[in-house]
Amino acid sequence: PGSGFRRSRTIPLDVAVPAVHGTYGEDGTLQGLLELADIPYTCSGVVGSAAGMDKVTMKSAFQAAGIPTVPHFAVDAADLDRDRETVLDEIERAIPYPTFVKPAHLGSSVGIARGADRTELALALDVARRYDRRLLIERSMEGCTEINCSVLGGAGYDPSPSVCEQPVVGEEFHTFSDKYLAGGKGASSKDQGMAGSRRLIPAPISDDLTKKVQDNAVRAFRAVDASGVARIDSFVDERSGDAWVMEINTVPGSFSFYLWEASGMSFDELAQNLLDIALQTHALKAQLMFSFESGILEGMRGPKSSG
């Protein structure tokens, strides 16, 4: 009586379904907690989630796998503080204008700014560094079209791509409002957030380009050891037929269900596949050994006391 605290309850979980974006939810932290708690979960593991959230590490994984990647340059905020002009010179030698500057570890377009010249680039770096100590500078893919594709896969399921989409944006890039506030008040849950953004499905590009985007998406999914459902964002040049991967989202908005519905898979089927992958991943991990008996410490014991 008189206490504002209730007795805690333990709720057994068969499977956790992480639907949390950004820091601590999408970067491997929550996934590590679920690993420690021995609870199956429906997204990428610790490594895949961490790599998918760190744009610098992600790009390195893509390049190591031989995947065409949007041209980029990484900067450490400490170097920027030490010698701003030298860093700006290095960026200008590596990436032509215009550029986009992004915090390495954030998503949802937070902290992103465009730089059309040296002055704007410097301002964009100042914006991004408020959010992260590592910054990514990407080439603005002028004349190219953004094309996205989802991939579903994991333990027991070979990664497979969805149909492609072409986002329709009113700004120079997809803003936070475009991604999460679209649809407006009164819209149904299926018409809000990423599901409510304007898009063309299937993307109006050639069959050859579609296949190239889908193949690159599956390769990117494998490169970071992703699992469950992810969305891979790319750029294509319809004149040259080239395609470049920009990034992977390991907890995509709305689980990219709209891409799978357009591919012939209902939301219920998508959810069941995610649950099955999570349970199979957990079952396979349970078969692994994580410790072994060793006598190495025995030899470190001192001589027994005669007393």
Describe the overall structure.
By secondary structure, this protein is of the alpha+beta class. It has two domains: 14-53 and 141-286, D-amino Acid Aminotransferase, Chain A, domain 1, CATH 3.30.470.20; 71-140, 2-Layer Sandwich (Dna Ligase, domain 1). A hairpin with a 4-residue loop joins strand 8 (228-237) and strand 9 (242-249). The strands form two sheets. Strands 7-6-5-8-9 form a five-stranded antiparallel β-sheet. It is 33% helix and 20% strand. It has helices at residues 29-36, 46-53, 55-64, 77-82, 84-94, 118-129, 176-180, 207-223, 257-261, 267-286; strands at 72-76, 99-103, 113-115, 134-139, 145-154, 157-167, 199-200, 228-237, 242-249. The protein has ten helices and nine strands.
Give descriptors for this structure.
20% strand, 307 residues, 2 domains, D-amino Acid Aminotransferase, Chain A, domain 1, 9 strands, five-stranded antiparallel beta sheet, Dna Ligase, domain 1, alpha+beta, 33% helix, four-stranded antiparallel beta sheet
Strand content: 15-25%
CATH topology of the largest domain: D-amino Acid Aminotransferase, Chain A, domain 1
CATH superfamily descriptor of the largest domain:
ATP-grasp fold, B domain
DSSP summary, beta strand count: 9
Quaternary structure annotation: single chain
CATH class of the largest domain: Alpha Beta
Query: How many strands, which pairing sense, and closed or not: the largest β-sheet?
Result: 5 strands, antiparallel
What helical percentage do the residues reach? Answer: 25-40%
The gross shape turns out to be globular
Task: Please tell me the overall pLDDT.
Answer: 88
* SS content category: alpha+beta
The separation of the N and C termini measures: 59 Å
Unreliable parts: none
Architecture of the largest domain, CATH level 2?
2-Layer Sandwich
Radius of gyration based on Cα positions:
23 Å
Q: From N to C, what is the helix and strand string? A: HHHEHHEEHEEEHEHEEHH
Strand ordering within the main sheet: 7-6-5-8-9
Number of domains: 2
Number of helices: 10
